[in-house]
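We emphasize that the prediction below concerns an isolated chain of 209 residues; any contacts that depend on oligomerization or on bound cofactors are therefore not represented. The input was used exactly as deposited, without trimming of termini.
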Amino acid sequence: MAEVHCIEHPLIQHKLSLMRRKTTSTSNFRALLQEVAMLLGYEVTRDLPLERREIETPLMTMRAPFLAGKKVVLISVLRAGTGLLDGMTKILPSARVGHVGMYRHPETLEPVEYYFRVPSDLPDRQVIVVDPMLATGNSAAAAVSRIKQAGATQIKFACLLAAPEGIATFHAAHPDVPVYTAAIDERLDDHGYILPGLGDAGDRLFGTK
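Result of the prediction step, given as a token string:
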């Protein structure tokens, strides 16, 4: 069954509200996105497996929990995914990193791929795909399809905002991939933007128009 996890932690919701304001500067938007990404990262990685290893504390020997298995892979959907990626690598500094370049055609709203580079051993790793906006869902679905073609079998998708239409489209293509988001907004407008949303995440992150 398709899963959607809406993370309603007060700190996430407060920071998201600051990001939504049109008066928030580029530098503040960028900093807030990284902070929210770290908080989302805690939730997305909540079920990572652990294993016990023997260590010595200053007082005695013990069997302590460590992350088990190979390092997590974070894959950013360019360009706006960079903001979430930067935040998540702060709590997962050893994670492997990949990039999928996608842009949405302004007339058809269909995804167009222009770049793809991911680690080679995806089948053995937990993959977390990050993109701030799950709007139409077309780009996210296309990116995850390419990642599956590269061998990934354990995939999660993390975003800042999602629209009901985007969730439906994404899970129609990938019912096995859970979605983690800070908020599910009302709907899309005629141009495929999330309402009430926060505008174009890439433009606000990089200060472009």
